[in-house]
Amino acid sequence: MIDEHEWRSVLQVAKDGTFSAAAKHLYISQPSLSQCIKKVETELGVRLFDRSQTPLALTPAGTIYVRQAKEILRIQQSLVQEVADLSELRTGSLTIGSSRTRTACFLIDPLVAFHRQYPGIQLAIKEAPVRTLEEYVASGTVDFALLYGNSLRPDFTSVALCREHTMLAVPKAHPLARAHAEDKAPGFPRISFAAMSGEPFIRLQPTRQMAEVYEKLCESSGAKPQVIFEANSIIEASELCAAGLGATLVTDMLVQSWRWKEQAFFFELEEEVEDRQLLAVCSKQRQLSLAAQRFIDFLRAD
What we know:
Helix content: 40-55%
Radius of gyration: 33 Å
CATH superfamily of the largest domain: Periplasmic binding protein-like II
Mean pLDDT: 90
Order of helices and strands: HHHEEHEHEHEEEHEEHEHEHEEH
Largest sheet: 6 strands, mixed
Distance between the termini: 54 Å
Number of helices: 11
Low-confidence stretches: none
């Protein structure tokens, strides 16, 4: 019953006061406009205009119709404007799934830069373990999540961001650190993980992917570290390491990007450890928003 051509015609007649003037503004013939108004009145079963006077006056029903038609016009204009705002990233929201480590070492600077360029986009981060992040992606709780590419679900798609390289960290007061402190060669000194046998060590909890790396290194090197603490995150393990509790495994992303209160001493490992590919992961079943696409561009640019 509510046709845009019809309610716009009624609004124009109400504004101009005559069918002839309204027809000129609508670029249609006066008979066509009269037929359009008559059709609306027939469908509603009431007159919208009092044709006994000039300019035309609205009937009580016409007053209601015009009021509601103006509201429809307002909603339509608002819809067009909001869609335009979204397409130009003047408004909207973006939720990213991440871990504490990846948030602190990979997202902080891009978040600040993105906000400066698109201040109307509301940003949020949901931090959780890998399995929970996967569920967030599948359910649409997040626009995308930062995950590693070792076991991507078939219903996900991804964009490659960077590769993370595993390294060894020890307290600066550790004998191994003191022994290599004066090394002048560029880069980090190399060491076998076998040197960790019997050494105080902070490993990650079994649910963390770095725990698997630790187990593989123990197996390949024959090392048997003295595990004194199981940390919940690489950041937690690194802070404890820097404070002197024991050695731990870190990534080059953490070494380069973490805002250290106190620096640990870092080694490259002689053992071959496969780099981890960090991905922006989203669901194949959901359209990636323009804001998410643009933010991923920020991540890849870095």
